[in-house]
Specification:
Its EC number is 2.5.1.25. One of its GO terms (molecular function) is tRNA-uridine aminocarboxypropyltransferase activity. This protein is an alpha/beta fold. It folds into two domains: about 240 residues, no CATH class; about 100 residues, no CATH class. Helices cover about 45% and strands about 10% of the residues. It has 13 helices and nine strands. Strands 5-4-8-6-9-7 form a six-stranded parallel beta sheet, sandwiched between helices. It has a three-stranded antiparallel beta sheet with strand order 1-2-3. Strand 4, helix 6 and strand 5 form a beta-alpha-beta unit. Helix 8 crosses helix 9 and helix 12 runs antiparallel to helix 13. The longest helix is centred in the last third of the chain and has 25 residues. The relative contact order is 0.17.
Amino acid sequence: MLCATSTTIRAFILFKCAAAKPQLCSKTHIYSRPGSLYYKFSMSACRSPPREVHLGDGADGSITLQEWQGWGTISPIPALVTDIVEDMKILERDIDSHMSFGGLGGKLKGHFGVQEDKKHRATYQALGDSEKKLQFFSARQIACRLLGSKGYLCQKCWLPMEDCMCSKVRPCSLWHRIRFWLYMHPKDFLRQNNTGKLLWQVFGVEAATLCLFGIAEHEEIMWNSFKLAGKGKVWCLYPNKGAVLKSVQDAFDQDLLENSDCTQSVANEDETLNFILIDGTWSNSAAMFRRLKEQAKTIWGEEELPCITLAAGASAMHKLSFLLQFECRPQPSWDRTCTAAAAVGLLSELQLLQQFSSWGLDKQAEAVEDALEVLLEALTTRRLRMGRSITRKVRHSTDIC
């Protein structure tokens, strides 16, 4: 639970929101606007000061398997990420300039940043194949974030070491028949205010598995699991405008009545239900969803990927999600929610279905809610410690009812 100070802060924010906003409807639609997917935190809790990384320090400056998997992944080190790190080490020696990271997203700064930018742009343009370009873009994003976070961010919670929240997060076992796949855009990897990371902090990396968009090793692991599971046991939590949207209840009730494979799946304790959560902004998630559909067509011969959407409702979890946005975004919105809150909504709706009601999904959802409160407190405390405002001006020009 949050401390009294943080509770007071949140109450103050709610008061300001109530004064600034028109009267809310009793229900809001989580996916009604194309501005974001689950409306994640794309801004950092604060801008980090520049910091140098000397790749020659320590062993050889490489990313070890232990370090790589410490960030929340189960895959081997991506080969292209290793190659890019090696190229950056060579460039550092060639131009006799150390790497410097800082600011929003921990970007490369200074002379090294300018020279590396020229080099990577030339490499990118020389790649004629769009798939190679995507893989290079993703690998470079990941490589820079890994190097810039060395010795700075906690590997578990992705917060600066002095703000680590790990001791306050309560682990919980997810029902063994459910597996979350966090299909994350590389620009959201290692963001301090990302909420997708909370799912494997709470449930573990096998129950909530990170899959980075454009990283071949990650996508291969995910799709190999989907091949084994079969299309009837894979769902994407996404507002697919090209198909009829199904609620959680409609999707599973219809599958149980019409799909014998799904009926057997619910009865078979050895089979897993896979849920994809796309972790990225709306503009990025559109490309990520297209990639999912293309791969689904390659594997199953059909472009349609089973999609489900959450029911509308201004729940306490939805309000907490808004508070997190309010403190970390210049323009939050009541009709959106963050990635972890979307998982909470999914678990809560599954709990209401008879076939899932005995597996304690409500308690598992509560564990993620608690972790979101811990993250809110950590981000708030950090902003206050850094002397930054914890509130932002609300700018809504339309009636969200």
